[in-house]
């Protein structure tokens, strides 16, 4: 996956198509990425403002997301896919 993502980055930066992966332009292929980054330091906001409240977690250790946290991440992902120029193929 790492090489596929790197090949798309190179092509989007103006480089040639990868001889193995083929055309990875956004017109021919979805945007490739590692995945979401939902980590935050509890109540200390990240640069984008994300925080996690202990009440959003499932267990007393506050390591596993509860229903409120799952809904929060799902809403963030839908907003990203709906609004990003990198995901023209997503239409909810």
Compressed to H and E, one letter per element, the order equals: HH
Low-confidence stretches: none
Structural class by sheet pairing and helices: mainly alpha
Q: Mean of the pLDDT scores?
A: 87
Report the count of strand segments.
0
Report strand %.
under 5%
Rg from alpha-carbon coordinates: 17 Å
**How can the largest sheet be summarized?**
none
| Distance between the first and last residues' Cα | 26 Å
Helix content: 25-40%
Q: What general outline do the C-alpha atoms trace?
A: elongated
User: How many helices in DSSP terms?
Assistant: 2
Report on this structure:
The protein has about 90 residues and is mainly α. Helix content is about 30%, strand content about 0%. The protein is built from 2 helices and no strands. The protein has helices at about 1-10, 65-85. It starts with a helix and ends in a 9-residue tail after the last helix. The mean pLDDT is about 85.
Tags for this model:
single chain; mainly alpha
What does this entry show, briefly?
The protein contains two helices and no strands. The protein is mainly alpha-helical.
């Amino acid at each position: 996956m790492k090489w596929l993502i790197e090949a798309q980055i190179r092509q989007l930066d103006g480089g040639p198509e990868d001889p193995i992966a083929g055309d990875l332009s956004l017109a021919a292929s979805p945007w490739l990425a590692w995945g979401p980054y939902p980590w935050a330091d509890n109540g200390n906001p990240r640069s984008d403002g994300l925080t996690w409240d202990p009440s959003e977690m499932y267990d007393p250790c506050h390591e596993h997301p509860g229903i409120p946290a799952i809904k929060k991440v799902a809403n963030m992902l839908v907003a990203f896919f709906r609004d990003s120029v990198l995901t023209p193929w997503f239409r909810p």
